[in-house]
Amino acid sequence: MQNVLLLVDVQNLYYTARHAYGRHIDYNALWARATRGRRVVKALAYAIDRGNEKQRQFQNILRGIGFEVKLKPFIQRADGSAKGDWDVGITLDAVKHAPAVDLVVLASGDGDFALLADTLRLEHGVEVEIYGVPSLTAGALMQSATRFVPLEGDLLL
């Protein structure tokens, strides 16, 4: 049985699924597919906290599924732009937990993670499975993965 680390970039999945399909990710189905026949060492969901009740309910659903939810405050800059991504945090957690796992499942289509996937595979000997919306997942990330699993069909609500 493979030991797995499950990392979910909530913001990326929300926006890519909404843009490509006008739908949401079924996190219960994602958990079931990504962990089937595997032992979960750690499961982390990374989100931006805007402080509203609907978001808190969603975060509690994620916790109920089995995710540890990591939150970062939403930052609105004076010029109107916004900041709020977890790329560095996801990368640090992946490298930190890599020695304890055989497989990292990363749910994100962000091409910035291609280097992480290469590093996990080549330097840590860890398989990398990427879950992403096919039309909005960076080609470099798909190529860096051991396996790419499309977020479509029964993985959507």
TrEMBL record:
A Pfam family: NYN
Domain NYN stretches: 4-152
Protein name in UniProt: NYN domain-containing protein
Species the sequence originates in: Halomonas mongoliensis
